[in-house]
Amino acid sequence: MSDKERRALWRQWCWEGGQLPPECLGMTCGARTRAGTPCKRRDLYRSGRCKLHGGLSTGPRTEAGKARSSRNAIRTVRSEPHEGANFPDDLGKSGGPVAHLK
Length: 102
Fold this sequence. Notes:
- This protein has helices at 3-16, 63-78.
- The protein is mainly alpha-helical.
- It has one domain (1-77).
- Helices cover 29% and strands 0% of the residues.
- It has two helices and no strands.
């Protein structure tokens, strides 16, 4: 069975449920890493890939979703800086891990 057929079987099982087909046992992500070797992760999403190689959302696809995403980006750019950013000399005075460096 080819890798493409195994992934199609995996996606079918994800939608229908039931007993995991024996062909899909031990299936890995298989995406090419930067080193050129196949990914060995076994925690797969419905797409048949791991969270590092296209497991979940690929972004908005509808016009309404794209508009909503663009509005959120504008709101993020226009937002005020975090309140802690206004007091740069206060860094490390919380008694946290940086406090011992003084």
